Amino acid sequence: MPTRRRLLAAAPLALLAGCATRFYDEQQPEAARPLLQVQNPGLQPSTGEVIRVQAQDLQAGDIILSAANGATSLGIRLMTLAPVSHASLYVGSAEIAEAVGEGIRRRTLEQFLEEEATAVAFRHPGVREEHVLRMQAFVGETVGQKYNLLGVMLQAPFAIDRKLCELPLTPTLVRDFCLQGLGAFHLGLGSSDTFFCSQFVLEAYRRAGLPLTEADPRLLSPADLLHMREGDVPSVRTHQALVYVGHLKYQPLGAPIV
Hints:
The protein is an alpha+beta fold. It has one domain (3-249): endopeptidase domain like (from Nostoc punctiforme) (endopeptidase fold (from Nostoc punctiforme), Alpha-Beta Complex), CATH 3.90.1720.10. It contains eight helices and eight strands; from the N terminus they run αβββαβββαβαααααβ. A hairpin with a 2-residue loop joins β5 and β6. α5 crosses α6 (172-187). The model is unreliable at 1-17 and 25-30 (pLDDT under 50).
């Protein structure tokens, strides 16, 4: 399909999704013209091949994005236009750490998966032993702390207004500036000593000396972490794309998560 026709075909989809877009050059000589790329709305990797994995396939520091059965998960997914509603951190020894309504907790991967309908793991290729030790130390310091309920409540109006920053063809720098400005308006300025799920994961990476982005973690949802994967369009500028590890639980295409 000629480049112009590709752009025309992709633009209505981007408008409907209200998602981030970017131009890129394909490496193939026969199609080395600028193409419009939009965010991947599903959990399928860019290759389309779903890989099933288990605990032994994970490495400490892996990020697990998931969705559960229930109204809360459905509401988050509808608000963020994404197939995931929760983010957690794999800390090794078949255990995860997460921020939930009861606060920061650590539990077994088996217990976690019993409550999730879909779960997929991603990996930062730059994670080393020293980063893992710092993440584990951060988890040890924060387990038992309160959940950032106010931050989650403020996310709702921000999630709606931020779509204005993600209109199709908005340059990355403009989008970043817009998101930061709206975030300051909705969420305020300064740091937070409590965390919600995606904020907790992003803070763990920051404390490890391996930040995923310079954007304020309070602005980002599990959907934003999902779009940091390879082959996707991140909502904010990132330092390193996340690598797809595989699905710990998989909901086939067409099977509703309710």
